[in-house]
TrEMBL record:
Span of domain Pyruvate phosphate dikinase AMP/ATP-binding: 55-293, 303-353
Keyword Phosphoprotein: no
Domain PEP-utilising enzyme mobile: 423-503
Catalytic activity: pyruvate + phosphate + ATP = phosphoenolpyruvate + AMP + diphosphate + H(+)
Protein name: Pyruvate, phosphate dikinase
Gene3D superfamilies the record matches: 1.20.80.30, ATP-grasp fold, A domain, ATP-grasp fold, B domain, Phosphoenolpyruvate-binding domains, Phosphohistidine domain, Pyruvate Phosphate Dikinase, domain 2
Taxonomic placement: Bacteria, Bacillati, Bacillota, Bacilli, Lactobacillales
UniProt xrefs under InterPro entries: ATP_grasp_subdomain_1 (IPR013815), PEP-util_enz_mobile_dom (IPR008279), PEP_util_AS (IPR018274), PEP_util_C (IPR000121), PEP_util_CS (IPR023151), Phosphohistidine_dom_sf (IPR036637), PPDK_AMP/ATP-bd (IPR002192), Pyruvate_phosphate_dikinase (IPR010121)
Residue ranges of every copy of the PEP-utilising enzyme C-terminal domain listed in the record: 520-869
Cofactor(s) of this protein: Mg(2+)
Active-site residues per Swiss-Prot or TrEMBL entry: 455 (tele-phosphohistidine intermediate), 830 (proton donor)
Highest taxon in the source lineage: Bacteria
Length: 885
C-alpha cells in the first residue's frame, strides 16, 4: 500500500515535491516547535493517483484519510459531529511550486445544523458560529458545486441593504441564521439536493475538489505563464480550524518579514480583527497595518515578531506568513518564501549577503534574469509630470509607471492587446484569479478596492507590473463600461497614466523616463561579472545607446550596425545619391561626405569606450532598403536630389530584387561596390588614428557580414587589409586591429574550419542563421509562428530562444571546427537571442566567448551568464582559456 498521508510531525521543508510548499512548511514549523494547528498532508502522489483513477479518490486513499482523521481527533480531543467538542478542519491546496490563489480552499469543514449549535455553546458566541457556517455553505457551494459566489453574496448584500447596514459586522445572529437558511435554499434550487450534513462527506468532497482545481483554467494559465510543469500535482492540507472570527480578541493577518515592494527590512503586513483569512485577501474590508498590533496586542506582536525572525533565519529568505489569533492565542498557519517585486528581490538578495545569511553565488542564483528588466523601472518624466495633475491616489502596490488605454474586464483588455496591439491598463473594482490573462497583458493595474496584499497587489508585484490599488474616488461601472475618477467620467479605451511607485493616477498620456540601474542591482551585476565566463557586450550604433549600455554594465560593443548610422535625413540623402550613382565616379562625392560623417560617429563611440572593445560591422542590408518606393516618395526624393523623377524611378526599378534578404547584401556588396567598404574602413581606422594622435590607443574590430566561404572571406579580408595598410602608410602609424566574420550562413558554419583560417573572430548572427536554417523569412514569421507554437510544432520561437537541435547544432559545429583551426578563436553571438537567458545556458555549454544584445538586455544577459556558469557541470578552467578580444 502506497503511503499517501503525512501528519505534520512527519514532514519537513525538504519534502516540497511530495507535500507541496505549504505542507512542507507547516511540517517544518511544527517541528520547530511553533504554534501550528494540528493536521496532515495528502501528498502530490495522491493527486496524480487521483487523476489516474479517473478523478476519483481510491478506496485505499479513502481508508488512509479515515485513519488520519481518527488520529487527528485523538490528538486534539475533538471529533466530527461531536456536540461537545466538534472537530472542524480547513482543506487547502498546496503545490510544490507556489501558485497563489489559483487553486481551491475550503474552510470550516465539519459544521452542520448540529455542530453549529455545539460551536455556539462552546465559544459562547452564537454569532461567530453562524458566521462560520454561512462561510462554509458559500465556499463549499462555490468550490464543490460551482455555484457562483455572486449568488451567495447577493443574499448578504440584499440583507444589508434591507436593514441599512454598512458592513458585514453589522449582521446579527438572527440575520446570519436567516442567511444560512437562504443559502440552503440555494442548494435545493441549483442542485436539487441538500447541503451534505455529514462532515466526512464534506471532507471527501472538498479533497476531491481541491485535487480537481489543479487542472482548472486559471491554474493552467498560471502554469503556462510561469513555466510550471503540469504533472506535478497539488498536495492537500487538512488542518484543524482556528478561528480569527471568534470575537474582538481574535483576528487574522498576513505579513512579510521584509517589505515585498522595496525589500526594506521591516515587518510588513496587515490584519483584521474578528475576521477569517479570506477577508484580508479579498480586500472587502480594509485591513489595519501590522504596526498597530504592536499597540493593540503588544505581547502577541512581540511573539509574532520573534517567530517571524526565527523563520527568516531558518529559511534564509524573506517569509510570507499567515497567522490567526483565536481568543488571544497566536497560531501560525503558513510560512513560505514571499513573492516580491524584482526590486525587492535584488535588495533582499544583496542584503542577505551582507547579513552573512547567503553567499554571493546564492544571491545571483536567486534572481530570475528576465525579472531584472523590470527593476529598471520607468518613472514618469519629471517635466511631463509637472504639467499633469494627480487625479486620484491609492496604495502604491507595485512600483513603476505606465501609460495605457483603460479596459474594465480581463477579456476586453486581452482582446485590445492581442487584436489591436494596444497598451492596456486594467481598471477594476478588484481582481480575482480569473483575471490573470488580462493582468498578464496589462501595462498597469488599477483597482478601487483592496489593500497591499489584495489579489491585484500580490499578482502585479509578482509580474513586475505597476499597480495602484484601493483608489479613493474611483468607481467602476461594468454595465456602462465607464469609470468615474474624482468626477471625471472615462470610457473604455481612454488614456490613463499610473504611477505604482507613489500610488497616483493621472488622466491622459505621460512620457516615461529612461531606465537606470540602482545601487543594489549594480552590486549584484558586479558579482555576476566576477562569476560569469561569458562576456556581455551591447548591440549599439549611436553614442546614446552605447552610453545606456555602459550604464547597464556592458563590456563594450559587440555589434555596431553601420547602416543604422545612415538613417538621419542628411545622411540618407547622401546614401541615396550614392546608390543611384551609375559608376564609381558618381559615387565619389557622396562617399566622401559619408566618410566624414561616419568617421565622426566612430570617433564618438571609441571615445566613449574608454578602452573597451568595439566591434563594427560593415554595411549589410540590401541597398534598395534606402530607396523610396511609391510614386509620391520618389517625386519628393528626386526633388531633394535635384534629379528627374523618371530617372530615379528607373534606378529604383533596376535595384529591385525578388528576394532581397537572399540577394545583393552583406559582403556581396563589397565585391560589387568595393569603394563602399573602403570608405567605411577609412572612417573606422581614420577615427582610431585620430585618437592615436590624441594619445588614445584603440584596437578596432571589423566584422564582415554574411560570409559563406573561406574564398569570399579571404577576398573581402584582402580588400579591408589593403585599405588599412594604405592608411597606415599614409599616416605613418600603425595600430592593432582584427578582421572577423559574422557566422550567419549555414554554409559558413559547415566550413568553419576553413573560414577560421582567414578570420580573427566569429560572431553568430543568429537572426539570419535561424532564418536560413529553417527557411523562415524573419520578417514574415508573424503569420504562422503563433500557430506553430500553439500546435506544439515548435517549443518556442527560434528567433527568441535558440533552437538547440538545429540551429544550435550548426553553432556547435562552427565552434568546434573554428577552434580546431584556431584554438583561441574568440566567438560571440550577436543575434537577438544573445540576450535570452535560456539560450545563454546553451552558449555557455558550447564554449561561446561572449554574447552581445540590446542595451536593456545587458543586465539580464549578465545575470544569465553568471547563472549559466555557476550551474555548468563542466569545470571552470576548461572553458576559461578563451578570452573575448
Ligand atoms: C543577425 O543576423 O543575427 C545579425 C545580428 O545581423 P542583422 O540582424 O543585422 O541581420
Ligand atoms: Mg544578419
Amino acid at each position: 500500500m502506497m503511503k499517501y498521508i503525512y501528519p505534520f510531525e512527519e514532514g519537513n521543508k525538504d519534502m516540497r515535491q511530495l507535500l507541496g510548499g505549504k505542507g512542507a512548511n507547516l511540517a517544518q514549523m511544527t517541528n520547530l516547535g511553533l504554534p501550528v494547528p494540528s493536521g496532515f498532508t495528502i501528498s502530490t502522489e495522491a493527486c496524480n493517483a487521483f487523476y489516474e483513477n479517473h478523478n476519483q479518490l481510491s478506496d485505499d486513499l479513502l481508508d488512509q484519510i479515515h485513519r488520519a482523521v481518527a488520529a487527528l481527533s485523538a490528538k486534539v480531543g475533538k471529533t466530527f459531529n461531536s456536540s461537545t467538542a466538534p472537530l472542524l478542519v480547513s482543506v487547502r491546496s498546496g503545490a510544490a511550486i507556489s501558485m497563489p490563489g489559483m487553486m481551491d480552499t475550503i474552510l470550516n469543514i465539519g459544521l452542520n445544523d448540529q455542530t453549529v449549535i455545539a460551536l455556539a455553546n462552546l465559544t459562547a458566541n452564537e454569532r461567530f458560529a453562524y458566521d462560520s457556517y454561512r462561510r462554509l455553505l458559500a465556499m463549499f457551494g462555490n468550490v464543490v458545486y460551482g455555484i457562483s459566489e455572486a449568488t451567495f453574496d447577493g443574499v448578504i448584500e440584499k440583507r444589508k441593504a434591507d436593514q441599512g447596514y454598512q458592513s458585514d459586522l453589522d449582521l446579527t445572529v438572527n440575520d446570519l441564521q436567516e442567511i444560512v437558511s437562504e443559502f440552503k435554499t440555494i442548494y435545493q434550487k441549483e442542485l436539487n439536493h441538500e447541503f451534505p450534513q455529514d462532515p466526512t462527506d464534506q471532507l471527501m468532497a472538498a479533497i476531491n475538489s481541491v485535487f480537481e482545481s489543479w487542472n482548472n483554467h486559471r491554474a493552467q494559465v498560471y502554469r503556462r505563464e510561469n513555466d510550471i510543469p503540469s504533472d506535478l500535482g497539488t498536495a492537500v492540507n487538512v488542518q484543524m480550524m482556528v478561528f480569527g472570527n471568534a470575537g474582538e480578541d481574535s483576528g487574522t493577518g498576513v505579513a512579510f518579514t521584509r517589505d515585498p515592494a522595496t525589500g526594506k527590512k521591516q515587518l510588513f503586513g496587515e490584519y483584521l480583527l474578528n475576521a477569517q483569512g479570506e477577508d484580508v485577501v479579498a480586500g472587502i474590508r480594509t485591513p489595519q497595518p501590522i504596526e498597530t498590533l504592536r499597540s493593540s496586542m503588544p505581547h502577541l506582536y512581540d511573539q509574532f515578531a520573534t517567530i517571524a525572525e526565527k523563520l527568516e533565519l531558518h529559511y534564509r529568505d524573506m517569509q510570507d506568513l499567515e497567522f490567526t489569533i483565536e481568543n488571544g492565542k497566536l497560531y501560525m498557519l503558513q510560512a513560505r518564501n514571499g513573492k516580491r517585486t524584482p526590486t525587492a528581490a535584488v535588495k533582499i538578495a544583496v542584503d542577505l549577503v551582507s547579513e552573512k545569511l547567503i553567499s554571493k553565488q546564492e544571491a545571483i542564483m536567486r534572481i530570475k534574469p528576465e525579472s531584472v528588466q523590470a527593476i529598471l523601472y520607468p518613472e514618469f518624466d519629471e517635466q511631463a509630470l509637472a504639467e499633469n495633475k494627480i487625479v486620484a491616489s491609492g496604495l502604491p502596490a507595485s512600483p513603476g509607471a505606465a501609460t495605457g488605454q483603460i479596459y474594465f474586464t480581463a477579456e476586453s483588455a486581452k482582446k485590445a492587446h492581442d487584436d489591436q496591439h494596444r497598451k492596456v491598463i486594467l481598471v477594476r473594482q478588484d481582481t480575482s484569479p480569473e483575471d490573470i490573462e488580462g493582468m498578464v497583458v496589462s501595462e498597469a493595474i488599477v483597482t478601487s478596492r483592496g489593500g497591499m496584499t489584495s489579489h491585484a497587489a500580490v499578482v502585479a508585484r509578482g509580474m513586475g507590473t505597476p499597480a495602484t490599488v484601493g483608489v479613493n474616488g474611483l468607481q467602476v461601472n461594468y454595465q456602462t463600461k465607464t469609470a468615474t475618477i474624482s468626477g471625471n467620467q472615462l470610457h473604455e479605451g481612454d488614456w490613463l497614466s499610473v504611477d505604482g511607485t507613489h500610488g497616483n493616477l493621472y488622466l491622459g498620456q505621460i512620457k516615461t523616463t529612461d531606465l537606470t540601474v540602482n545601487d543594489d542591482l549594480a552590486t549584484l551585476l558586479d558579482w555576476a561579472k566576477d562569476e560569469a565566463r561569458l562576456g556581455v557586450y551591447a548591440n549599439a550604433d549611436t553614442p546614446k545607446d552605447f552610453a545606456q549600455a555602459l550604464n547597464f554594465g556592458a563590456d563594450g560593443i559587440g555589434l555596431a550596425r553601420t547602416e543604422h548610422m545612415f538613417f538621419k535625413p542628411e545622411r540618407l540623402l547622401e546614401m541615396r545619391r550614392l546608390i543611384i550613382a551609375e559608376d564609381a565616379e558618381g559615387r565619389k562625392t557622396p562617399l566622401k561626405r559619408l566618410l566624414e560623417m561616419q568617421r565622426g560617429d566612430f570617433y564618438e563611440l571609441y571615445k566613449l569606450s574608454k578602452g573597451r572593445s568595439v566591434t563594427i560591422r560593415l554595411l549589410d542590408p540590401p541597398l534598395h532598403e534606402f530607396l523610396p518606393h511609391d510614386e509620391k516618395e520618389i517625386k519628393a526624393v528626386a526633388a531633394q536630389l535635384g534629379i528627374d523623377p523618371d530617372y530615379l524611378a528607373q534606378r529604383v526599378d533596376a535595384l529591385k530584387e525578388l528576394n532581397p534578404m537572399l540577394g545583393h547584401r552583406g559582403d556581396r556588396l563589397a565585391v560589387t561596390f568595393p569603394d563602399i567598404y573602403q570608405m567605411q574602413i577609412q572612417a573606422i581606422m581614420g577615427a582610431a588614428l585620430q585618437l592615436l594622435d590624441e594619445g588614445i590607443i584603440i584596437e578596432p574590430h571589423i566584422m564582415i557580414p554574411l560570409t559563406d566561404s573561406k574564398a569570399e572571406m579571404s577576398w573581402v579580408r584582402d580588400l579591408v587589409v589593403n585599405q588599412i595598410e594604405d592608411l597606415f602608410d599614409a599616416h605613418n602609424a600603425k595600430l592593432e586591429y582584427t578582421v572577423g566574420t559574422m557566422m550567419e550562413m549555414p554554409r559558413a558554419c559547415l566550413t568553419a574550419d576553413k573560414v577560421a583560417e582567414v578570420s580573427d573572430f566569429f560572431s553568430f548572427g543568429t537572426n539570419d542563421l535561424t532564418q536560413l536554417t529553417f527557411g523562415y523569412s524573419r520578417d514574415d514569421v508573424g503569420s504562422f509562428m503563433p500557430a506553430y507554437i500553439k500546435e506544439g510544432i515548435l517549443p518556442a520561437d527560434p528567433f527568441q530562444t535558440v533552437d538547440v537541435e538545429g540551429v544550435g547544432a550548426l553553432m556547435k559545429m562552427a565552434v568546434d571546427k573554428g577552434r580546431f583551426t584556431k584554438p583561441q578563436l574568440p566567438i560571440g553571438v550577436c543575434g537577438e537571442i544573445g540576450g535570452d537567458p535560456k539560450s545563454i545556458h546553451f552558449f555557455e555549454a558550447i564554449g561561446v566567448t561572449y554574447v552581445s544584445c540590446s542595451p536593456f538586455r545587458v543586465p539580464v544577459a549578465r545575470l544569465a551568464a553568471a547563472q549559466a556558469h555557476l550551474s555548468a557541470k563542466r569545470p571552470i578552467e576548461q572553458a576559461a582559456g578563451v578570452k573575448a578580444h
